[in-house]
Each structure stands twice: as C-alpha cells, then as structure tokens.
Description:
The protein has a domain at about 30-120: Cupredoxins -  blue copper proteins (Immunoglobulin-like), CATH 2.60.40. By secondary structure, it is mainly beta. Residues about 5-30 and about 130-145 have low confidence and may be disordered. The chain has one helix at about 1-20, and strands at about 35-45, 45-50, 50-55, 60-65, 75-80, 80-85, 95-100, 105-110, 120-125.
Amino acid sequence: MAMSRIVFLMPAALFLAACGGGGSSSSGAPSSAVGQTIKISEKEFSLSPSTVRLAKSGTYEFQVTNDGAITHAFEIEGNGVEEKTGDIAPGSAMTLRVTLSKTGSYDMYCPIDGHRAQGMKGSVAVGGASSSGQGTTTTSTKPGY
Length: 145
C-alpha cells in the first residue's frame, strides 16, 4: 500500500515542480518591472505621439499599433540602447519592452527603408523637470490671485 502512494504522489510532485518555479525569465536575464505602457500609433508617415516624456529611467513597454495601410516597424535607439520590433502588418500591434537606464533623449522611428526620412520619427525624453507630460498648469487672470 505504501508503495502505491509513492507511485501516485511522485507524478504530482514532478508536475508541481515543473509548473512552479521562481520568478526567473526564460532568457536567464533578471526580470524587470514595467514602469509604464506607452501607446504609439504608426501610419503613413508619422508616429503619434511623436514626443514621449518619461519622469525617470526604467523599463517601459511600447505598445505599437500599425494604423496605416502598409507594413511598418518600431525602433528605439540612443544612450547605448537599440531595440526594435519585427515587421508590423497593417491593423496589427506589437509590444516592445525597453530598459531606458539613462536620463536623456532617445530616438524612436520606423526602421523600414525610407520611412524615417518621410517623417516616421520622434523622441523619448527620460528625466527632467517636466518629464511626465501629464501635469497641468493653472494660471489665474483675476486680479489678486
């Protein structure tokens, strides 16, 4: 009877060991928490928004949607970073996870031949006083305020 319990419990233990596991990624690199997801729309021949301001360095996901009629792609380059998606078919989307570890400016663009020169480009600014782009400024025109 004891032997049949061991035989029954062993596959369950193997299954749990295979399905469980720590938080390590399959690439062997440490996993990074994503700070924010930025949505980018691509079409002939623009990126929207064309300027992205991020408050601090970190790992970000760029969710890129091809709203155009021809194939596009997306690349971020600068400060030692060069990451890009594969081709994105019209009506499709891809997500690019990028670690922007330095403050400063990064270029974003469509790397398909000639698209950048035709206007499919923009910038990502990391750090700085007004880097969130989400804040509002209130100014009063009333005397005494």
